[in-house]
Amino acid sequence: MSDRLARNSVDGGQIIYLLDTGKILDLKFPTFWFDSTPQGKFMLSIAFSQSKYYVDNLSQNVKRGNRQKLRRGDWPNKAPFGYLNNKADKSIYLDNERAKFITKAFQLFSTGRFTYVDIRRFFYTEQH
User: Which one, 60, 67, 88, 102, has the greatest CB density within 10 A?
Assistant: First the structure.
C-alpha cells in the first residue's frame, strides 16, 4: 500500500513530516499499518524506498525494452501522425490519407513565409 501512498521521495518525506508534526497520527490499511513511532516511521521509510526502487527499476526496464525494439526496427509506441500501426508484425507503415497533410505542412513551413500558427489555421480551415 505504501507504493500507492508515495512514489517519490518528496511525497514520502512529506508524509513522514506530517507524522512527525502530529498532523497524521498513524497510517492504517486493511493488511498493515504504520504507527507514529520511531519504528513505525523507520518501516514506512523502508517501504517508500522499496517503492522508489521499483519505479526507478521499471523505468529503466521500459527504456531498455524500447531501445531493443528500435534496434530490431520495431516502433515501440503508437505510430506518429501520418503512420499506422501494423498489429500483425508490430511495425508502422505510411498512412497515405494523413501523410499528405504532413508533407503539405513541411512544404508550407520550408518556404519561410508561414508560421506554425499559419499552418494550423490552414489545415483547420481546409478541414471545415
Answer: 102
| d(C-alpha 33, C-alpha 13), whole Å | 17
Instruction: Give the tens place of pLDDT for each residue, 53-91.
Output: 988 999 999 999 999 988 988 888 899 989 999 988 888
Locate 56 and state its grid cell: 526507478
Radius of gyration of the chain (CA): 25
- Residue 87 in grid coordinates: 498489429
All three cell numbers of 106, joined, read: 513541411
Q: How far apart are CA 57 and CA 59, in angstroms?
A: 5
Contact call for residues 119 and 108 (beta carbons, < 8 A): yes
Model confidence band, residue 29 (pLDDT cutoffs 50, 70, 90): confident
Kindly state the helix (H) or strand (E) to which residue 94 belongs, with its residue range: strand 91-94
